[in-house]
Write a structure and sequence with these properties.
The complex is a heterodimer of chains A (about 250) and B (about 300). Chain A has about 250 residues and is mainly α. Chain A contains ten helices and no strands. Chain A has one domain. In chain A, α1 packs across α2, α3 runs antiparallel to α7 and α3 packs across α9. Classes of the chains: A mainly alpha (about 250), B alpha/beta (about 300).
Chain lengths: ~250, ~300
């Protein structure tokens, strides 16, 4: 294991986030605050409690998940796309590092950033609504698992993308709708039966549901199923990444 | 086992079907400067890419310091430093950070003293806290060398180190390369500037259409293929070459003011003495003589033009 290399990539990526602190941390925090003000305080005050949880508090896990998903994807995809775009990727490819090490460095850094961001958003949310966390360890586990899975997904997008437009398109066209329709702002029990069934095909439902369970112990779907779905997604991403490195897809001609 | 790199039957066919390398065999001796010459698109960069792990070969083997580049890539790549053709850098990073990053990436523990020395030898030490985007093109080129040397490689690839570089900088680059060789680093450089190979290389390889058409000691090559020309400036204009001198295959240029004789330096007899004698007998007087040796460039052009 070339630990020096993993550390180098990891610190390099973290340093990049530090340089671009504003967009890395501040802007997601601001947008989350806006959600809280609009949905939590303004509209939320007119909405009944859901399963005994005030609406403002109810949306906290969903909002964190929303940020976690989008930030993991954008961090990781940008992290690997940028060196491809500038050409500095040659150095990583010519270094004595294995595919696993490259992935750990880039994905690890992206996931770390997302988790830090998630914690900051959680703290920010605490300013607006009282939050209790029933299973803090599970909450952290869900957070990390989601961050890692979607950072891997972002890593794949960053390798697949051959232009800045493509880098944006998947998060914009697929992930944001899935996140919004995945029970971020509502319990899927509130939906008519047909839509409820359709929603069950949305993977984000399982993430949000499991995450919300770790806060308030109520979930739309079984927690075990949530974990299984994240595991499935993680495995699918890992298989894709290993295929990428094996075939050299868009990395090595 | 005295070769730094040993390449056997190396082939690369891109997905498009283009054959960039066709069964290339090449041995790079330890400690030498090897110049790989070839026109654009000849396969120089692909060859380097294959050795460094950036391009996946479709056939053949590469052995670096006794290790197979495919199976023991950790050992082989740790031995190699690569300076790419393009000035690819992270614009927002500082000089110091990017060189430190390179060292770590190649699996070496942090060593500030070495990084300092490297930057110093490349006249970059006073720029260490500057962002790369603020550097000039020449500094960026030196920075890429510093990055490539950060992990103390024994083999250095320089892909067109002086492409688009001014004369002064080119000479500085040559000085740097010579210093590295003195330090025991094996250097492989690609170039399409012949003078560069002529100036620096111990051996020259010529690649064209993915095939290595020649590998030779530079001096040997120039000796072997070197033609010399003797130009005679005539005192009186000559209308035509006298038939008696036909066997010398002379050329009359400059409106009949200069007579050119091409001869092979390698030949046992150059034919200069009899020629001068016969000219004298024919009453042709000349006021000046000078000789020129064909450059590597002429040799190169003749090699690349002629079908393999």
């Amino acid at each position: 294991m070339n630990l020096h290399a993993v550390k180098s990539i990891y610190y390099f990526e973290m340093a990049r986030a530090w340089r671009t602190l504003f967009q890395s941390l501040i802007s997601p925090v601001i947008s989350t605050c806006l959600y809280f003000i609009v949905f939590g305080s303004a509209i939320g005050s007119r909405i009944n409690d859901i399963d005994g949880v005030s609406y403002g508090a109810f949306i906290v896990p969903g909002l964190i998940m929303l940020s976690l998903l989008t930030e993991s994807i954008s961090n990781a995809s940008f992290g690997i796309y940028l060196p491809r775009f500038t050409g500095t990727i040659y150095e990583v490819l010519s270094a004595p590092v294995s595919h696993v090490e490259i992935t750990i460095g880039y994905v690890g850094a992206a996931a770390s950033k997302s988790v830090v961001l998630g914690c900051i958003i959680l703290a920010t949310a605490g300013l607006f609504v009282p939050i209790e966390i029933a299973h803090p360890l599970w909450m952290l586990a869900f957070m990390i698992l989601t961050a890692v899975s979607f950072s891997l997904f972002g890593f794949i997008i960053g390798i697949w993308a051959d232009g800045f437009e493509r880098l944006q398109i998947i998060p914009l066209v697929i992930v944001t709708p899935l996140a919004f329709l995945g029970g971020t702002f509502y319990s899927i029990d509130m939906l008519p039966p047909m839509w409820r069934t359709i929603t069950l095909f949305n993977p984000v439902v399982y993430l949000v549901s499991g995450f919300r369970w770790s806060f308030y112990e109520n979930a739309d779907v079984d927690v075990a199923l949530s974990l299984a779905m994240i595991g499935l997604f993680l495995t699918a991403c890992m298989i894709t990444v290993s295929w990428i490195f094996k075939t050299g897809y868009r990395l090595k001609p | 086992m005295d070769d730094a790199i040993s390449i056997r039957q190396l082939s690369k066919r891109y997905d498009s079907g283009f054959e960039a390398l066709k069964h290339v065999d090449l041995d790079i001796r330890r400690g030498e400067i090897f110049a790989l010459l070839g026109p654009n698109g000849a396969g120089k960069t692909t060859l380097i890419g294959c050795v460094c792990g950036i391009v996946r070969p479709t056939g053949g083997t590469i052995v670096v310091n006794g290790h197979d580049a495919a199976t023991a890539y950790r050992q082989t790549r740790a031995e190699i430093g690569l300076v790419p053709q393009e000035l690819t850098t992270d614009a927002f990073e500082t000089v110091w950070n990017t060189v430190t990053f390179s060292r770590g990436l190649f699996g070496k523990p942090r060593d500030d003293a070495h990084i300092r020395r490297t930057l110093e030898s490349l006249s970059l030490l006073d720029k260490r806290d500057d962002r790369i985007m603020s550097l000039s093109g020449g500094m960026k080129r030196r920075l890429l060398i510093a990055k490539a040397l950060s992990h103390e490689p024994s083999i250095l690839f320089l892909d067109e180190p002086t492409a688009g570089v001014d004369v002064e900088l080119r000479q500085e680059m040559w000085r740097i390369v010579r210093e590295l060789r003195r330090a025991g680093v094996t250097i492989i450089l690609t170039t399409h500037y012949i003078e560069e190979a002529e100036e620096m290389a111990d051996r020259v390889g010529v690649i064209n259409h993915g095939e290595l058409i020649l590998v030779e000691e530079k001096t040997e090559l120039m000796h072997k293929l070197g033609k010399k020309q003797m130009s005679l400036e005539l005192t009186e204009q000559l209308q035509s070459i006298p038939d008696a001198l036909n066997r010398y295959q002379l050329e009359l240029i400059d409106d009949g003011n200069v007579l050119v004789y091409t001869y092979d330096t390698h030949g046992a007899r150059t034919g200069i003495t009899p020629l001068l004698q016969e000219l004298n007998e024919a009453g042709i007087r000349f006021r000046d003589i000078h000789t020129t040796q064909s450059t590597l460039e002429d040799i190169f052009v003749s090699l690349v033009k002629s079908p393999p």
